[in-house]
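Incident log entry.

Two folding requests arrived from the same account within the same minute. Monitoring flagged them as a possible duplicate submission, but the sequences differ. Recording both here for audit purposes.

Request one:
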Amino acid sequence: MNERPKILVVYYTQTGQLKRIIDHVLAPLEGKADFTFEELVPVTPFPFPWGRQQFYDTMPETVQSTPRGIEPLKVDVNAHFDLVILAYQPWFLSPSQPTAAFLQSEAAKQLLKGKKVITLLGSRNMWLNAQEKVKNYLHQAGSTLVGNIVLVDKSPNLISVITILRWAFKGKKEATRFLPQAGVQENEILTSGRFAGPIAAALQHGKWDTLHSELLALDAVELLPNLVVLENKGIRAFRFWAKFISAKGGPGAASRQGRVTMYRVLLLAGIFVLTPVSLVTSLIQLNLKKARLRREVDYYKGISLR
């Protein structure tokens, strides 16, 4: 009798949303595979709800990939796993600090070497740069990315900004008279078990080459062209501000708080200005540079690395 496949799930969550996504994606595999869950734990926990200033002060180190440390992993890094699922969320268009700390660690390099990996994201709506960084980390560790599943908040961009900030700073996720519920829509989470079928087939037959295309056929990754344009503008601004703020000191330093406040004010103003501008820009590009933008969309929906 064949042994059941072994799946390692590595994740970090503040609100519990990502763990719910994991549980629903994997629910159809219960009894068909053995699971090991490794929750990443920061040495100094990040708060939730966030303090407003602390939230924005976290940006520079997140964007510059200099995260605060995490506790040692509980899992045996030499253990055999048929599949690793890396579940994470983007912070400031980059992998969350606990995720980056894990991927930079020697333990992760040992654990991931030679492994098949599926990335599973729970995100507002912009995740492209974060996934590019993760793909590079996985490549450096000698693992193979075989699939990507992205669950996002499908509310209009400006609405999702308002609801996510309300959730982050006040801990209030529920819908109001004027605003929808924050985060990934409930139906998206409840129906995410559909991805288990192709994963189970790949585990059973060892046929990984077609897994991601099968996941895409189930809408594992949906991407609007205007978000490609908006994120490309956003990450350039974040890199500038990360350098500008960190030049005045490390996380929490009083000497940099003036710059953090300046960034906070300009960021929110920029979002409300750039969102309609990027929509118009993407429409222009779709007409003038249609093939190029569609190639960009196709690339980001895939799992290859430039």
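Request two (distinct sequence, not a duplicate):
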Amino acid sequence: MALIPATLATASAADAPTPAAPSVTIGKQTTDPQKVRDFWTPERVARALANEKKDQAGIARDAAVAEAAAGATEDKTRGAAPRLTAEAPRVLPAKEAGVSATAAAADVPEMPVAEKVPYPQTPPATVVGKILYIDDAGEEHGCSGASIAADGDNTVWTAGHCVHPGDGRGSDGFYDLVLFIPGYKESLDTPGEYDAPWGEWVAQSFVAPEAWTQDQDYDEGDLAAFTVEAPAGYTNLTATVGALGYKFGYGSDWSDIIDSGFPGEGYNRTDMDGYTQFYCTGDVVDAMDWNPFDNRLEMNCDMGAGASGGPMATTEGEIVGANSHVEIDDQDQRINDHLYSSDHGDQAVAVINAINDAN
């Protein structure tokens, strides 16, 4: 697997200054992997999913705050400075090698109302999985993530708030008991329990931008990656379920995007339970095209909390964003079906490069 290292999007300007890579925070999960797997009993998973339904903490962003931030004259240079880029192609699971992974654009209609993934425990859907974790208050929560092409073949891409509260504590702030379950689904034989036919993968090392861990920056910092340990009987995550590629630093406007995750609730929805993988399709646009300081990705998709960290990916299987937040009013009510991702530019390049450097 050949990974393309960071380059400059403004390569034609030979004298353009090379931008400094943003700083990242690195941490580790030291809990014994088997203890992590044993912790997640059906009762604890049920509490995690209930927490997704009862509120939108972690995926909510007050609309008034967003508007104020958009109008602020912050000392940021990403609107004019050269941008870093990084990319890698999608990798198929070992048993699917040689099979075409590209869908025709005509097969991706505009679908802002999420539908259930037809075969969530079958490749390529298994590249997306459920993330379970414990927050600082000891409460169980769920997010989403996806296997991503990276050195070591054991890396998951997700949102920053799925692994760290963004409270300034740096490497000490990463959550504990973090587990990734590709192909996750409620058991048909035992309702209230989940199936993990592709194994339970325990988080090992985390990388998130300081823009998130120190500043809780939703505009460009709410993204992260973590490596996982293969459970008994498996070689690595990429060989098992495959891995999405990525295109970081190529802007915020994309056509025919597939967005997926495991929402526990949604905009005007009552049928999302946190066990079921849903997906939306359609175009992604720059959330505030007129504002060079806000390059978030905006997609019309009614998935909500629980889908955080799920990938926004091209039909070629390249991640361009990760579900981060929605807009709420002063009554904590979601105001539209817009689903946002942080800008996957310099910060995303820095995170994937740090993961590759560590492997």
